[in-house]
Structures are given as structure tokens and as C-alpha cells.
Amino acid sequence: MSWKRPLFLLHRWAGIVLCLFFALWFASGIFMMYVEFPQLTQPERLTGSQALDFSTATLGPGEAVARLEPGDFAIRATPSSIESVAVRDGGIVAKSVRLAMVLERPAYVVRPDNDAQPRVVFADDGEVLRTVTPEMGGAVATAFVRRSGGNVSGIAFEGTVHTDQWSVSAALNDHRPLLRYALNDEDGTHLYVSSRTAEVVRDTHRTERVLNYFGAVTHWLYPTFIRKYPLVWEWMVDILSGAGVVLAISGLWIGILRWNRRAAPGKPQVPYRGLMRWHYFSGILFGGVTVTWVFSGLLSMNPFNLNPPRRPESDQQLVYAGRVLTPTDFVLPQAGLGRDAVQAELIHYGGQPFYRVTQRDMSTRLVPGNSEAHNLPNAASMMNRAPELMADAKLLEATLLNDYDNYYYSRHPEHGEKTLPVIRVRFDDPQHTWFHLDPRTGQILDRSTRTNRVYRWLYNGLHSFDIWWLWQRRPLWDICVIAFSAGGLFLSLIGVVIGWRRLRYKAQRRAALAAYALAE
Asked: What is the pLDDT of residues 374-399, one digit of tens each?
């Protein structure tokens, strides 16, 4: 009998703790519907960035990359540390090269293929930017705010941070450590400047910071002291959500077993009264969605890598690119980028070099990278070449999509995400592979297999109700999500109260029995 009491206590306490987490997840999920985690959106970034001006440039992309040394790409960052990476023998292999204005000067931002942090090479004199001082960062922040229409009179340097509550995302690993500046404006704005590229990479405002403690910080278990250690955070989420799935399923199963379908006339079919009766019926109504939400939350961590990568294979990328990125193919872009161009990236299409130029209004266009580049992509030519993506499989369909659907959609098209039109091609291979292609730039946007698409429904479909028909009919989507979240919150809070009452009752009963035994 000695093992039963500890096991009982463990079960009760585990139930209370998990129900408490359920309650926090449901409540914070409602906040997250309307308050996103702080980020620098593409419209904000383009508005605050200086227009490209390469009139003073003297180096082409190939010459700029040649100024770099393997030792320039020897470190990478995580939210918790700076790490060394293997340095490639021989020359630099650029994974991407981007044109930008850095510190009011034309520059190339070079990202290598060894996952190291990027480097900036100035296009006017070939200088490599190796140190970003607080004064430099302050100048960058001031210019960014001025172009965005803000007040620059109160900007103050708050220090260099490797990771804080609003910079825990791995998306900022290329830029750590970060220089943080306070604008001291009415919105309580903070700007984060990259110590690697001297660009503004994140902004936050007082209201979103406060509300996010009730939203994403709680929902994602994002306190800095946890999230800055990615493996610890992943294990914590996996264990809690996995245990939560077991608890929710067992609760539903117990509810089914306790339903007395053969009860005599006039006798209740549910053997509970009071708060337990409320818990029982709320479980019947909302237990199913509780299971699916906790289960899909577990899938957000992609346990055991169940969801394969959606990046095309290198040979598939070459079908349209024609060759790997070769900076020496590009001539100096002193003209032709356009007065509204804010950034440009080096790409190849059909073996020809092009600058993929992004305008301030988020539109993109291709500009020839040399005098021989002239064959621009279009939907018809890309469809004709689509069979080459999978030579061993039959092409089933190539379609031009002008509207979003359940497999290609954006919640925020105003941010420039998932632009239209797009080409979808489908193959009859064993994995039922699909590709989405951009007819404006000739790029492969993504690849998906049947596993990816099933996983999309199990995660996005169940967790966020990402059903395009429903999302198009807001506020119907909002009503559904809030209603189920409120029901799950009610169910979870009752579970906490019942568990706590039972623990107290057991403790009081044992104390009473002990007192009675002493009296005897």
C-alpha cells in the first residue's frame, strides 16, 4: 500500500498542473488572435529603408565577395551563445548576395553556405564592415525613424543585448548581438540594430510588449530564461503537450465509461453533481477540441521530424535557375534599379543573371544582371519546363492560381507574404509532390509532399483553424475560435478547482484519521 499514496498524489498534482497549463494556453490563444509577437514587418522595413543608390559604387558583386576571407565566416549565433563553425577551405561560396544601403553607403550583404553570420562589403571602396559601434547603430536608428515619419529627438542607446524577451526568435541569429535603442516616444518604441549588418531588424512598442505577456510569451512558453536555451525549451514544450494529450484523452475516455446508458427511468445517467457535473458536460462539449488543440500544439515542434523539409532539392532549383549563384556573372548595377528600389538580390533564371528588385510598395521585378540577360520568366515558359522538376514522374497538372486556397494562402497579404499569382504543379510520384512557382521571378517557392499537406491539416488546420473558407468569412472564424477557446478555458479551470479540492479533502481526511487514532 505504500506506493499508492505517492502515485495518487503524483497523478492529482500532474492533473492540476496540466489543467493550469491548458487554461493558460486557451486564454493566451485568444490574445494571440489580435496581438502578434513583435516583429519588423516588411512594410515597416521597406518604409524605413533608404532607396538603393549605387551611383558611387565601384565594385561589382563578384569583386565584393572576393574581398572576403574564409575567416569572416567563422561564427554563428543561437539565442544563448556564439559558436564557431567550420571554415571552408578555398574561396568563399556565397549562398545569397543582397544589395542594400548600409550607413548611407551602397553595400552587398553576403551570406555564406556554412550557416555563419553574414558580412557586409561596401560597394564604394570594398571595405568590409567588421564592427558596428553604438554610434553607427544610433545613426542607423535615427535615419530609419526619420524615413518612417517618427520623432528622432529622444533616441537613446540602451546597450548591447545578446537575447532579451523580444529577440528570442531564431530569425535574429544572423544579427546577434543586437544594439537596442529607445525612442522615448509616446508608444514606448524600441529598435534593434544588427551588429553584423548595421540594419534595423526588429521594433517593439509598449502596448504589444505588455499584451504579449498575456499572449505569445505565455502560449509559446517564451520567457527568456527558457527560450534562450532552444533544446531545453523544445523538450519542455514536447513533454508538457505530450502529457497533456494523454490527460485529455484519458479524461474523455473516463467520461464515456461513466455514462450510464442503462440507468433506470428517473435515475441520472451521469453519476455526478455540482461542480463535477459541470466538468463532465463541459468535457463532453469541449474535450474533443482540447485534445486536438493540445495534439496540434505538440506538432508545432515537429517531433521526430515528422514533417519533411519543404525546400526543393538542389537539382530541382537548378531547373529554372540554370546554374548555382555566381556573383561574378553580375555587372555593377549603377543604373536601372529604379528610384523606388529598396533592396535587390542576386538570382539566376535560365542561366542568366538577374537582380530581383523589391520596390518600396513591396512589388518585385527582375532587372538584367548583365548585357546578355534578356529572357524573363513567364507563366507559360515555366509550365512548359515543369516536367523537368521530376523527370521520373508524370506531371499531372500545372495551374496558374489567382486566388488563395487551403494549400497556398496568407493571413497577412498586406505584409507581402505569399503573393499572387502563383503556379502550382502536381506530380504522380509516390510522395504526390507539389511545387509552387513564382512566374514573376522564376523561383521555386516551395515543395510539398502528401505528408506535408496532411501535417498542414493536423497542425495549422486543427490548431489555428486555418481553413480558407472560414478565414474568408471573418468574423465567423473569430467567433468559432473564441467560442471553443472559452469552452476549453472553462473546462480547464474547473479541472484545476476539482483537483485542488480533492487534494485538500484527502489531506484533511488523513489528518482527521490520524487525530482519531491518537485519541483512541
From this structure: 899 999 999 999 999 999 999 999 99
Count CB-CB contacts under 10 A for residue 362.
Answer: 17
Burial 470-498 (b: 16+ CB within 10 A, else e): ebeeeeebbeebeebbebbbbbbbbbbeb
The grid cell for 352 is: 542568366
What the block records as the C-alpha cell of 233 is 525549451
Write the CA distances from 19 to 12, 74, 179, 294, 455, integer angstroms. 11, 46, 40, 11, 26
The DSSP symbol for 170 reads G
3-state class (DSSP) for residue 181: strand
Confidence (pTM)? 0.91
List beta partners, residue 231: none
Record the cell numbers describing residue 105, joined without a space: 553607403
Under 8 Å CB-to-CB from 381, ≥6 apart: which residues?
A: none
My answer on whether omega of the bond before 475 falls inside 30° of 0, hence cis, is: yes
- Strands of 156-161's sheet in order across: 156-161, 178-182, 190-194, 200-204
Enter the C-alpha cell of residue 308: 519533411
Return the domain boundaries, the chain: 135-204
Can you tell me which residue has the cell 502536381? 426
Q: What is the pLDDT of residues 64-82, one digit of tens each?
A: 999 999 889 999 999 999 9
pLDDT at 5: 53
Per-residue pLDDT at 519? 62
Residue 93 has pLDDT above 60, yes or no: yes
CA-based nearest residue to 136, from 162, 160, 166: 160
d(Cα 449, Cα 433) in Å, to the nearest integer?
4
pLDDT at 266 (0 to 100): 61
Q: What is the per-residue pLDDT across 9-18, written as a single tens digit (0 to 9) for each?
A: 555 667 788 8
- SS3 of 414, please? helix
